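Summary for the steering committee. One of the milestones for this cycle was to obtain a three-dimensional model of the protein with guanosine-5'-monophosphate bound, which we needed before selecting residues for the alanine scan. The sequence and ligand used are listed below.
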Amino acid sequence: MKITMEEAAKKLMAAQRVLITAHVNPDGDAVGASLGLAALLREKGKTATVVLDDKLPRNLAFLPGYDEIRRPDGTPPDVDLLVVLDADPDRVGDALKGISGVPLLNIDHHITNKQTADFYYIENRAATAEMIYDIAEHLASSFPKAMALALYTGLSGDTGSFRFSNTRPSTFRAAARLLEAGAEPHVVSENFEVKPLSVFEGQVAALRTLEMTSGGRVAGLYLDQELTAKLESSEGFIDMIRVIEGVEAAVLIRALEPARCRVSIRSKGLDVTRVATKFGGGGHVRAAGCTLEMPLAEAKRAIQTALDELLASS
Ligand code: 5GP
Ligand code: MN
C-alpha cells in the first residue's frame, strides 16, 4: 500500500523494535540512510538493529554505529517492524530470511521500485537519506550528531557531492540543517574518498581498458575476473570516464564469475533504466545497474546493443 511521508513517520513511531536493512553492495546512501534512521529511532527510545547482507565499504567506518551493523546470522531478531531502505525488498540478500508475519515498510527513491511492500513510501528524490531527513524534520526531534553525519553522507554520496541533476533545493536545505546538527563536510569527504593503494592501482589498470564505441558517444571500462577479484572497490571508476567530451553514456562491466557480470551505467540525460530493466536491473534515469549471467565479452555485446538502440531512439 502506498503511503505518505507522514504515514511512514507514524508507522515508525508506532513500532518499538525495528529491523532496518538496505540493498546488497551497499553504498553511502544505503549505509547512511540505515544508520541515520537507526539513530533517529534510538533518539525516540526505540530499539533499532541494522542488518546488511554484504561486505560494507571500509571508507564508511567513520560513521557512528558502523561497527554494530550486523550480517544475517540465521537467527531472526524479535522485531515488530521491518524497514527496507534504498531498494526493493528483494534486493537485500538474506537480511530478512526466516522472518515472517512482521509488516514491511519500504522507503526508496528509485523510480524503478516495484511497489510490492506492505507499505511503501517512494518518491523521486536525491537520496533515501533525504527522505529519512524529511521524516526526522516532520517528527521535529532534536537531531543527534550520529544521524546528521550518516544522512549527510547519504546525500553527498548519491548526488556526487551535490553536483548531479538530482540535487534540488530540498537537498541543500536538508544538508544545511544536518551541518547545524554536527555533520562536517570535510570529515565526510576526507573519509569517504579514501581508497587503499591497491584500489588506486586497480583504477589505473581499469582505465587502460577504456574503449570508446558508438562513434564516441559511449565510453566503457571492461574488467575481467582477475582484475575484478583484485579490487576491493570500483567506486568512482565510472565517473572518471563520464566526463570525456562527447560521451552520452558511460559503462563499467566487471566479471564476477566466468558467466556473471555486474554492470553500471551512467548518462547525461538518456534514460539508462531502459537498458538496466531489460536485464532485470533498475535504478535512476542517469544511473542504473544490472547483473548479467554471461561471460564478459557477451555481456559487453549485449549492453552495447541495448545502448545503441537507446541512442538511436533518443
Ligand atoms: P551502481 O551502478 O552504482 O551499482 O547503481 C546505480 C543505480 O542503479 C543505484 O541507484 C542502484 O541502486 C541501481 N541499481 C544497480 N544495480 C541494480 C539492480 O540490479 N537492480 C535494481 N533494481 N537497481 C539497481
Ligand atoms: Mn540511494
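Key point for the committee: The chain has eleven helices and eleven strands.
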